[in-house]
Amino acid sequence: MLKYSKVAGLVVFVFLFAMCNQKSKNETDKETILKGSIDITVDETIKPIVEDQVAVFEGTYYGSKISITPKSESELINDLLNERTKVVVTSRNLTKEELARFKKSKIQPRVTPFATDAIAFISNKSNNDTLIALKTVIDFMQGKTDPRFDGLVFDNPNSSTVRYMKDLAKVKELPAKGVFSFKTNDEVIKFVSENDGMIGVVGVNWLSQPSPNMAEVVKNINVLSVKGLNSNKYYSPTQNDLAELKYPLARDLFIINCQGYTGLGMGLASFMSGDIGQRIVLKSGLLPVRTPGRKLSIRKEIIKDKE
């Protein structure tokens, strides 16, 4: 009987120990704003800046793991609306119709702007003309030929750059002739670098932060200065021209969180729009939504440093 009691006691002890370990494991795995794991979907045209943000976030908060899935804008928004993803980084805000759909599902998206990006026009390095009028590109998209270039090259038929340019040109479909599309911005840059007479349409983030294997390729293209529809001057997609609202193809970037609870999506959004995240944006060549502050130490007298 005594032997049976000892065995029973041992079984109870092992059971309780296992339960405690399971509870501890569940508490450790619980997602917060600074730890846990999450999958986010990112507009492919702005992937480099998001990769930088995630790398620094994970390096700062070691308990966090964020996986990035790049997709076209159309796929990204569709996944968000159908709840296949909860957190996205995109180059546009939600429309009234999309917000109404979320409201019907009793979901309140948290939309956080964190940077201003730009769509850039690029040409082959052999092209000495580095200026282009936006009206020229719009006319081409409306089916009018232009002797100054042979065609437009986009990254993806469903991308944010295509949607942006179609909205500007007020066309529903791209012309059947003279417009080409690939899958990624890198493919567009490579094609333009090897083919004279083509105008590439890419997110400027891919030019300001080229991947190591694209660094030499980027040297073989020109980033064109653009004259807006209501301007007589040409401006480049630089931080200065974006800040002064002069470059005509600027667009705001957002992180949209539909998690519905205080999770890692909220932590990442706060990070990207906070001081460190804004410094990362500034260093990337894009324009932060707020300029990171600088602390200056002013001394009344000069103190010689010890030799």
From TrEMBL:
Pfam family, one: PBP_like_2
Signal sequence bounds: 1-20
Domain PBP: 35-272
Keywords assigned by UniProt, alphabetized: Signal
Keyword tRNA-binding in record: no
Name of this chain's protein: Phosphate ABC transporter substrate-binding protein
Origin: domain of life: Bacteria
PANTHER family cross-referenced by the UniProt entry: PERIPLASMIC PHOSPHATE BINDING COMPONENT OF PHOSPHATE ABC TRANSPORTER, PHOSPHATE-BINDING PROTEIN PSTS
